[in-house]
Amino acid sequence: PVPASSATMSAVNGGQLTQTNNDGTSAMVVVPAGAVSADAGFMVSTLSSGYTAPMASANLIVIGDRVYEITAASGGLNVTSFAKNITLTFKYLDSQIPTGIPEASLKIHWFNATTSAWIALESIVNASANTITAVTNHFTKFAILGEKGAGVTIIQPSEKAAAMLIRVEGDPRVYVIVNNFKRHIPSPAVFNSYGYKWSDIK
Hints:
Structural class: mainly beta
Largest sheet: 7 strands, antiparallel
Number of helices: 2
Radius of gyration: 17 Å
Order of helices and strands: EEEEEEEEEEEEEHEEEH
Number of strands: 16
Distance between the termini: 46 Å
Strand content: over 45%
């Protein structure tokens, strides 16, 4: 495996860190301003091939056996939770998706060491770019898992023009409607990654 990637993130400005593997897969961490109360060192590690990913279920599979451990520390102490959501974007390969697992089922999961269970995060798949994005307010081990019969929003380039962006009165969240399906956009980083314009929000 490649060496871990690390960077110091400013409490005032935040920052971005990407761990890229030899096969082109990667894990990007985007830290917004104000997520930490003091400057912190962030690290993303790709767990070695000798690491065995914990089993999920018969229908839930770790894609590519790729597991990332993401950590942060400040003042010699581990930072385990954040004041603002951290955006995770993982890149995968089509060849890593087993037969029978639809690409639409992919989600970023975090591993709960207490219960030995993988917990799904609300995720958005960009099938054309082979990326999946989610937000989290804490760090642990993360992986992309796929499941038969499940689904998430997939944004295709041809659908961007037809997408409608809305914000409901009294609700600060932004939603995208594609093919009559409404989905919450979890963070500004996700919004910007799809090339949407804030002025287009209805």
